[in-house]
Amino acid sequence: MTVFDGKRHVDGDSTESSTLSLDDGDIHVCQDGPRDAPALLLIHGSASSTRSWDCLVPLLTGAHRVIRIDLLGHGRSAKPAGPSYALPDQGRRAGVALDRLGVERAIVVGHSSGGAVATALAEQRPGLVTALALINTGPGMHAFIAPESAAIAPSQWPPTDEQIRRFASTGFSREGYRIPQELLDEVRVMTYHTLTATMRGTRDYLEQRALPDRLAVLGKPLLVIFGEDDRRWRSSSAADYRTVPGAEVELLPGLGHSPILEDPARTAGPLLAFTAIHAARH
């Protein structure tokens, strides 16, 4: 049995939830599926949490040990003011979390900026990451679509539901999409510092070097899934990843920045086909 260095409990839906004590803050972890199956790590985007994967996880557990983490500053993980929220540091923490869980190899899946964290992890720990799947992860800042609405000001923190809905509206393909209440709550539990620091960390990492350039030298199998109606990153920029040898790029018509929420089944299709080929064998 895996020994955890923090709190551990099993939810009613058989999700095992635990807290890992890292040097710079506690990290919340969820696990689903057979513990002896190939490991699949899911990394959420900025201002999100493990909850963003809730609809997708049941479609993945038949063949995988599915591991989700709340990045430092998010969800049920610690939100300290001192530690770095730079993406390489977030990637390092994800690697330490897998080490604590006894995972030696994993396919890593990232949504939005979580894909950049996955890339940072692969750069640091190439022996740990066997393959990567990026879901609506912009390849570089040139592909970013600047929001029309103003950002939430420090004086407005914590924000109201309506402020969060406006802030998060471009995360979906249509204006009328009803964002689940639990995801609104996850934004509100962040501090203003952790929100702005993590978003700045993503921008800095992409400005330093575009993701396709970083991935091309790693030699890892790569799947890129992109909702074609993304309103945060130009979906045409998904083609940038084709410079990575062997990369697979899958566009999903009618879906926006968050296909994992808008249509989990359509997102799971190409992801499962990819992992079936590249899953780490124990």
Can you walk through the features of this model?
With 282 residues, this protein is an alpha/beta fold. It has a single domain (8-278), classed as Rossmann fold. The chain has eight helices and nine strands. It has a nine-stranded mixed sheet, sandwiched between helices. Strand 6 (106-111), helix 2 and strand 7 form a beta-alpha-beta unit. Helix 1 (87-100) crosses helix 2 (113-124). The longest helix is centred in the last third of the chain and has 17 residues, at 192-208. The chain is globular, with a radius of gyration of 17 Å.
Question: Which characteristics define this entry?
Answer:
about 280 residues, alpha/beta, Rossmann fold, nine-stranded mixed sheet, 8 helices, 9 strands, about 30% helix, globular
Summarize the structure.
By secondary structure, this protein is an alpha/beta fold.
Low-confidence stretches: 1-12
Order of helices and strands: EEEEEHEHEHHHHEEHH
| CATH topology-level fold name | Rossmann fold
Q: Give the rounded overall mean pLDDT.
A: 92
The quaternary structure here is single chain
Order of adjacent strands in the largest pleated sheet: 1-2-3-5-4-6-7-8-9
Please identify the top-level CATH class.
Alpha Beta
Bulk shape:
globular
Beta-strand proportion: 15-25%
CATH superfamily: Alpha/Beta hydrolase fold, catalytic domain
Look at the helices and sheets and give the structural class: alpha/beta
Radius of gyration: 17 Å
Report the CATH architecture: 3-Layer(aba) Sandwich
Largest sheet: 9 strands, mixed
Give the N-to-C terminal Cα separation. Answer: 16 Å
Give the tally of structural domains.
Answer: 1
- Tally the helices: 8
Task: Tally the beta strands.
Answer: 9
Helical content stands at 25-40%
